[in-house]
Amino acid sequence: MKLSSRIPFRLALKQTPEQRSSSIDTYQRTMLHSNLLRLVARGGPKRLMSTATKLTTVEVNDKTGIATLTMNRPPVNSQNVQLLEDLQKSITEIENNKSRGLILTSAMSNVFSAGLDIHEMYNTNEERLRIVWTELQNAWIALYGSSLPTAAAINGHAPAGGCLLATACEYRVMVPNCRIGLNETQLGIIAPKWLMSGFLNVLPKRVAERALTQGRMFTTQEAFEVGLVDEIANSKEEALEKCSAFIGSFAKVNSLARGLTKLQFRAENIKEFEKIREKDVANFIALASRPEIQKDMGIYLENLKKKGKK
Ligand SMILES: CC/C=C\CCC/C=C/C(=O)SCCNC(=O)CCNC(=O)[C@H](O)C(C)(C)COP(=O)(O)OP(=O)(O)OC[C@H]1O[C@@H](n2cnc3c(N)ncnc32)[C@H](O)[C@@H]1OP(=O)(O)O
Description:
Keywords: Isomerase. It contains eleven helices and ten strands. By secondary structure, the chain is α/β, with parallel strands linked by helices.
């Protein structure tokens, strides 16, 4: 069996000790090979990778070996099924290409991601709801469970599913005057436990509980003060540089040891999630289908549209 040196956590969890030691040998060979490749490539231009995705792009900096994954679904990167699927494809591609790390960002000028596309949940059928929620779960676990160093260059607002993606990463840099948070309770809905896990990884429990129950959207400055974001940058370019510096901080660390250490921190959340994921889909369908929730979604969408026309 061919084992990759960068084993997604969800797969590493299922490995036997023998498979793990075999992946260490593979790891050493692959590191040698990729270091040689990197030496050859050093100084070369940025490379746009050949993903067959519609709504994401991946660009690898040949000098640093870091991949930038950009979401590009105007106007607000709301997460429809296509964007969620493209995110997964791009993450897999970055992992397979042995990049040194992944930076998630947005092509929009003022929005990182507006969260789930509410149109996908409104006035639809159960099968569509099942697909939407399953793809959200899949995109989250692909990012949260990646053994690569991950960082989010949050170059705009990041409500709900936007915050979910940002907190699935290990490091966050945000531009000023934007908002980030899990605002589900404000929409009358409950974020399941797995959806809160990234948030709970970075915030003290008391701060997280209050923020989640209030559905609080933090300003950039507030998010920095509580630790929801690690740094503030004055522009997207600066945010990308700071994310690269974070990923670069692992340059001298054995990447398998680094990845497995990350796994130990996240394994419990991942196992819990794997246990309940199907039930969670059923819960979501039941909740999102309720007439009062559908009514609230309709009102929410109308208000968003009215706000846009002002
Ligand atoms: C039943 C469910 C159970 C459990 C779910 C739990 C998990 C849920 C996760 C979610 O992610 S739900 C989505 C939550 N998202 C939001 O509440 C964000 C709403 N959007 C905004 O606050 C703002 O749009 C903004 C992101 C701050 C950007 O503001 P801006 O002024 O730049 O843009 P504008 O508001 O004018 O929007 C432009 C355009 O986009 C439409 N839009 C915005 N967000 C969404 C969205 N999430 N889904 C679908 N469409 C969205 C908005 O209506 C405008 O459309 P228009 O051009 O046709 O008017």
